[in-house]
Amino acid sequence: MRQNRRWKLAARRRRAERGLTLIELLLALAILAVLTGFLAGGLSIGRRAFGADRSSEMRGETDAAIEAIASLIASALPVSATPKSGIEFDGRQMSLTFVGLSEGRALRGGPHLIVLRRTGGDFVVDVVRSAPDAAGAAAVPPPTRVVALSGVRDIRFSYFGRMNPSGAPGWQAQWFRAERLPELVSIQIDFDDPLRNEPARIIALRQG
Fold first, then answer.
1. Where are the domains of the chain?
2. Which pLDDT score, from 0 to 100, does residue 12 have?
3. Which sequence ranges form a coiled-coil region, renumbered to this chain (predicted)?
4. SS3 168
Protein backbone atom coordinates (compact mmCIF):
# COMPACT_ATOMS: atom_id res chain seq x y z
CA MET A 1 0.00 0.00 0.00
CA ARG A 2 2.76 2.41 0.93
CA GLN A 3 4.58 1.62 -2.28
CA ASN A 4 1.46 2.29 -4.36
CA ARG A 5 0.94 5.56 -2.47
CA ARG A 6 4.52 6.58 -3.25
CA TRP A 7 4.03 5.78 -6.93
CA LYS A 8 0.86 7.88 -7.00
CA LEU A 9 2.61 10.82 -5.32
CA ALA A 10 5.52 10.56 -7.76
CA ALA A 11 3.12 10.43 -10.71
CA ARG A 12 1.32 13.53 -9.42
CA ARG A 13 4.63 15.37 -9.10
CA ARG A 14 5.58 14.42 -12.67
CA ARG A 15 2.17 15.59 -13.96
CA ALA A 16 2.52 18.83 -11.97
CA GLU A 17 6.00 19.35 -13.35
CA ARG A 18 4.77 18.69 -16.90
CA GLY A 19 1.85 21.07 -16.38
CA LEU A 20 4.11 23.80 -14.99
CA THR A 21 6.49 23.41 -17.91
CA LEU A 22 3.61 23.70 -20.36
CA ILE A 23 2.31 26.85 -18.63
CA GLU A 24 5.77 28.37 -18.68
CA LEU A 25 6.10 27.55 -22.37
CA LEU A 26 2.75 29.17 -23.16
CA LEU A 27 3.68 32.26 -21.14
CA ALA A 28 7.05 32.45 -22.87
CA LEU A 29 5.38 32.22 -26.28
CA ALA A 30 2.88 34.91 -25.32
CA ILE A 31 5.65 37.22 -24.08
CA LEU A 32 7.67 36.54 -27.22
CA ALA A 33 4.68 37.43 -29.40
CA VAL A 34 4.19 40.70 -27.50
CA LEU A 35 7.88 41.58 -27.75
CA THR A 36 7.90 40.75 -31.46
CA GLY A 37 4.92 43.03 -31.98
CA PHE A 38 6.61 45.85 -30.10
CA LEU A 39 9.81 45.33 -32.08
CA ALA A 40 8.01 45.32 -35.42
CA GLY A 41 6.06 48.42 -34.42
CA GLY A 42 9.23 50.16 -33.32
CA LEU A 43 10.98 49.35 -36.59
CA SER A 44 7.98 50.59 -38.56
CA ILE A 45 7.88 53.84 -36.58
CA GLY A 46 11.63 54.21 -37.03
CA ARG A 47 11.34 53.76 -40.80
CA ARG A 48 8.51 56.29 -40.98
CA ALA A 49 10.46 58.78 -38.86
CA PHE A 50 13.57 58.32 -41.04
CA GLY A 51 11.49 58.76 -44.19
CA ALA A 52 9.84 61.89 -42.79
CA ASP A 53 13.22 63.36 -41.77
CA ARG A 54 14.70 62.64 -45.21
CA SER A 55 11.64 64.10 -46.95
CA SER A 56 11.83 67.23 -44.79
CA GLU A 57 15.55 67.57 -45.49
CA MET A 58 14.95 67.18 -49.24
CA ARG A 59 12.22 69.85 -49.19
CA GLY A 60 14.54 72.20 -47.32
CA GLU A 61 17.36 71.68 -49.83
CA THR A 62 14.98 72.15 -52.76
CA ASP A 63 13.52 75.35 -51.34
CA ALA A 64 17.00 76.77 -50.64
CA ALA A 65 18.14 76.02 -54.21
CA ILE A 66 15.03 77.61 -55.75
CA GLU A 67 15.50 80.66 -53.53
CA ALA A 68 19.11 80.99 -54.74
CA ILE A 69 17.95 80.75 -58.37
CA ALA A 70 15.29 83.39 -57.72
CA SER A 71 17.92 85.70 -56.21
CA LEU A 72 20.07 85.31 -59.33
CA ILE A 73 17.15 86.21 -61.59
CA ALA A 74 16.31 89.21 -59.40
CA SER A 75 19.84 90.55 -59.99
CA ALA A 76 19.22 90.94 -63.76
CA LEU A 77 20.50 94.24 -65.20
CA PRO A 78 19.14 96.15 -68.24
CA VAL A 79 22.50 96.01 -70.05
CA SER A 80 22.78 96.52 -73.83
CA ALA A 81 25.70 95.24 -75.90
CA THR A 82 25.38 98.23 -78.26
CA PRO A 83 23.21 101.37 -78.17
CA LYS A 84 21.05 100.06 -81.03
CA SER A 85 20.62 96.52 -79.73
CA GLY A 86 18.11 95.31 -77.20
CA ILE A 87 19.05 94.51 -73.65
CA GLU A 88 21.07 91.39 -72.88
CA PHE A 89 18.10 89.37 -71.72
CA ASP A 90 17.12 86.26 -73.69
CA GLY A 91 14.14 84.66 -72.05
CA ARG A 92 12.77 81.45 -73.52
CA GLN A 93 10.30 78.98 -72.14
CA MET A 94 13.00 76.40 -71.35
CA SER A 95 16.01 78.65 -70.64
CA LEU A 96 16.99 82.12 -69.53
CA THR A 97 20.14 84.14 -70.31
CA PHE A 98 20.80 87.52 -68.72
CA VAL A 99 23.44 89.79 -67.19
CA GLY A 100 23.34 89.72 -63.42
CA LEU A 101 25.32 91.55 -60.77
CA SER A 102 27.25 89.59 -58.15
CA GLU A 103 27.86 91.09 -54.72
CA GLY A 104 31.11 89.15 -54.43
CA ARG A 105 29.98 86.41 -52.05
CA ALA A 106 29.71 83.07 -53.82
CA LEU A 107 30.99 84.64 -57.08
CA ARG A 108 33.48 87.36 -57.89
CA GLY A 109 31.98 90.81 -57.76
CA GLY A 110 30.77 92.53 -60.90
CA PRO A 111 28.52 91.73 -63.86
CA HIS A 112 28.18 88.15 -64.99
CA LEU A 113 26.49 86.51 -67.95
CA ILE A 114 24.21 83.89 -66.40
CA VAL A 115 22.49 81.03 -68.22
CA LEU A 116 19.75 78.96 -66.54
CA ARG A 117 18.55 75.78 -68.22
CA ARG A 118 17.84 72.08 -67.80
CA THR A 119 20.44 69.56 -68.91
CA GLY A 120 19.19 65.99 -68.66
CA GLY A 121 17.68 65.71 -65.20
CA ASP A 122 19.65 68.65 -63.76
CA PHE A 123 18.86 72.33 -63.43
CA VAL A 124 22.23 73.94 -64.22
CA VAL A 125 23.52 77.47 -63.79
CA ASP A 126 26.34 78.55 -66.12
CA VAL A 127 28.14 81.72 -65.03
CA VAL A 128 30.57 83.69 -67.22
CA ARG A 129 32.28 86.85 -66.03
CA SER A 130 33.31 89.29 -68.76
CA ALA A 131 36.84 90.58 -68.19
CA PRO A 132 39.02 92.76 -70.46
CA ASP A 133 42.11 91.12 -71.95
CA ALA A 134 45.47 92.80 -72.60
CA ALA A 135 44.19 94.38 -75.84
CA GLY A 136 41.20 95.82 -74.05
CA ALA A 137 38.65 93.51 -75.68
CA ALA A 138 36.22 91.52 -73.63
CA ALA A 139 37.65 88.09 -72.90
CA VAL A 140 35.19 85.30 -72.19
CA PRO A 141 36.60 82.82 -69.66
CA PRO A 142 35.28 79.28 -69.43
CA PRO A 143 31.90 79.22 -67.72
CA THR A 144 31.47 78.02 -64.18
CA ARG A 145 28.75 75.38 -64.06
CA VAL A 146 26.74 74.67 -60.95
CA VAL A 147 24.12 71.94 -60.68
CA ALA A 148 21.46 73.70 -58.64
CA LEU A 149 18.88 70.89 -58.61
CA SER A 150 18.78 67.23 -59.61
CA GLY A 151 15.85 64.98 -60.44
CA VAL A 152 14.26 67.72 -62.56
CA ARG A 153 11.68 66.64 -65.13
CA ASP A 154 10.80 70.01 -66.64
CA ILE A 155 11.27 73.76 -66.20
CA ARG A 156 9.12 76.55 -67.62
CA PHE A 157 9.82 80.27 -67.62
CA SER A 158 7.28 82.97 -68.41
CA TYR A 159 7.60 86.74 -68.44
CA PHE A 160 5.27 89.62 -67.59
CA GLY A 161 5.49 93.18 -68.86
CA ARG A 162 5.73 95.23 -72.07
CA MET A 163 8.32 94.19 -74.63
CA ASN A 164 7.95 97.63 -76.25
CA PRO A 165 6.45 100.91 -75.01
CA SER A 166 3.37 100.64 -77.23
CA GLY A 167 2.51 97.07 -76.25
CA ALA A 168 0.07 96.00 -73.58
CA PRO A 169 1.47 94.30 -70.47
CA GLY A 170 0.85 90.58 -70.11
CA TRP A 171 2.39 87.17 -69.56
CA GLN A 172 4.48 85.83 -72.44
CA ALA A 173 6.39 82.61 -73.11
CA GLN A 174 9.40 84.46 -74.58
CA TRP A 175 11.21 87.72 -73.94
CA PHE A 176 14.15 88.71 -76.16
CA ARG A 177 15.38 91.65 -78.26
CA ALA A 178 13.30 93.87 -76.02
CA GLU A 179 14.00 97.44 -74.98
CA ARG A 180 13.42 96.70 -71.32
CA LEU A 181 13.44 93.93 -68.77
CA PRO A 182 10.21 92.14 -67.93
CA GLU A 183 8.60 93.29 -64.73
CA LEU A 184 8.14 89.74 -63.46
CA VAL A 185 9.64 86.35 -64.21
CA SER A 186 7.80 83.15 -63.32
CA ILE A 187 9.67 79.87 -62.96
CA GLN A 188 7.93 76.52 -62.59
CA ILE A 189 10.06 73.45 -61.81
CA ASP A 190 8.60 69.95 -62.06
CA PHE A 191 10.50 67.10 -60.40
CA ASP A 192 10.54 63.36 -61.00
CA ASP A 193 9.33 63.06 -57.40
CA PRO A 194 6.00 64.92 -57.32
CA LEU A 195 6.36 65.46 -53.56
CA ARG A 196 9.11 67.99 -54.33
CA ASN A 197 6.91 70.08 -56.62
CA GLU A 198 6.11 73.60 -55.46
CA PRO A 199 3.98 76.44 -56.85
CA ALA A 200 5.60 78.64 -59.47
CA ARG A 201 8.02 81.20 -58.07
CA ILE A 202 7.40 84.81 -59.16
CA ILE A 203 10.42 87.15 -59.19
CA ALA A 204 10.26 90.94 -59.57
CA LEU A 205 13.05 92.57 -61.60
CA ARG A 206 14.58 95.99 -61.15
CA GLN A 207 13.47 98.50 -63.78
CA GLY A 208 15.79 101.23 -65.09
1. 1-208
2. 57
3. none
4. coil
